[in-house]
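[SOLVED] Predicted holo structure with S-adenosylmethionine

Edit: marking solved, answer below. Original request kept for reference. I posted the sequence and ligand SMILES and asked for the 3D complex as structure tokens.
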Amino acid sequence: MPQTSRSDLDKETIAKAYGRWAPVYDLVFGAIFEHGRHAAIAAAERIGGRILEVGIGTGLSLPYYSPDVRLTGVDISEPMLRKAQQRVAELGLNNVDALAVMDAEHLDFPDTSFDVIVAQYVITTVPNPEATLDEFARVLRPGGEIVLVSRVGAEAGLRRALERWFAPAARKLGWRTEFSFKRYASWAKTTHNVQLVERRTMPPFGHFSLIRFAKAGGTALTRQTAARAAG
Ligand SMILES: C[S@@+](CC[C@H](N)C(=O)[O-])C[C@H]1O[C@@H](n2cnc3c(N)ncnc32)[C@H](O)[C@@H]1O
């Protein structure tokens, strides 16, 4: 069920925060999140086709996609997206169809437009994560997948206490520290046609996870099945 009422984050604060991050983002978050980005891309490419990357940021992931997939990227921060546009131009990435400023919760695409939705390090930065996931499911075709790499908050212990303590500062920087896996799991449980298919711990420190959801219906046409079908 969409949770669009009150939120602990607001879009203007987040957009401003990432406007400030844009000049140094690659330096600070480039290498540290690389493993997760590669894992998400590998998962997305098992489906292939039309891939929407939400919260694409400076486009660090773009050069690693296969030239065979068609990519669309959106982000709420114009300064972050400008960096992604520069990257596309500099590297001559011909598989990028469009990059647009857009809110993840209100995607300007018709239903079932994409084969895969990827969101790396994004869900804990949006004001209404469940409503945003609903929107991902809407624009995803039956048989397609949502591939997230996301921070997962600790359920108990010292890490949970530290995350709670750091939460107000983290919001100003543009994300939530505390965000339990239960929220992802219960979104899938209560969402028609969507099923949780994988959770895999990711570095750094195992505080992140690759999370995959499949949308029922249609044919899950993976690259392997497509190749077999092509003979
Ligand atoms: C931590 S960065 C991740 C960037 C990139 N995915 C990566 O792997 O480095 C989060 C990104 O999500 C974007 N973002 C935050 N809220 C958003 C929203 N409501 N709609 C679209 N993008 C959003 C931010 O502007 C930022 O570029």
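OP edit: The pocket of S-adenosylmethionine is lined by residues 11, 14, 18, 29, 33, 37, 54-57, 60-61, 74-77, 80, 103-105, 120-122, 125-126 (CB under 6 Å). Thanks to everyone who chimed in.
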